[in-house]
Design brief:
six-stranded parallel sheet; glycoprotein; LRR_dom_sf; leucine-rich repeat; globular; 195 residues; single chain; mainly beta; Leucine-rich repeat, LRR (right-handed beta-alpha superhelix)
Amino acid sequence: MLQIFDLAPNNFRGKLHLTCLGTWKAMQPNPDKNQSELKHLQFENFGGGVKYQDAITITIKVLELELVKILTMFTSIDISYNNFEGPIPGVFGKFKELLGLNFSHNAFTGSIPSFFGKLQQLESLDLSSNSQRGEIPLQLANLKFLSFLNDTNNKLVGPIPTSTQLQTFSEASFENNAELCGPPLKTACGLPSAK
C-alpha cells in the first residue's frame, strides 16, 4: 500500500492542482482488491513543469514498473520546500487515514482549511513558512492524536482555538504570527501583540 507521497524538495511552482488524486478510484480503500506493496513514492529534484498522470513509471531495484493505479491510502504527504501557491486544495480532506502532512516552505495563501479537522488520525501537521492568513480554524481542536504542529512564519491572526490539544504545544509552534494570541502564547487576546 502506498503510504508516503513525497514531492520534497523540488522547485515545483504554481498552484497545486491535485484534484486528480480524488478521482483515482484505486486510491480509495477497496477490500475486494489486493493492495500494492509499495511503501514510499518520492519525486526528488525534478526539473521543468509539473505533469499529473493516471499512470506513473517508477524504478525499484533497477526494474522499471508502470503503475496504472496507485492503491489504497496515503498515510504521509510531504510537499515541502517547493513553490506551490494559492489555497491548499480540498482533495487533501478526503484522505482520512493520513498521519502526517508537511506543506511547509511553500507559498500557500488563504486560510488554513477547516477540513484538516476531519483528518481524525492526523499526528503531525506542518504548515510553516507559507503565507496562510486568518484565524486557526476551530476544527483543529478535533485532532486528538496531533502531537506535532508547526504554524510558524505565517500571517495568522486572532485567538488560538481553546482545546486541551492545541494548548499542549509550545509557543514555538506558533512563532512569527504577530497577530495571533491566547494560550500557549504569552500575548493575551485583546492586548497589543508582543513583538
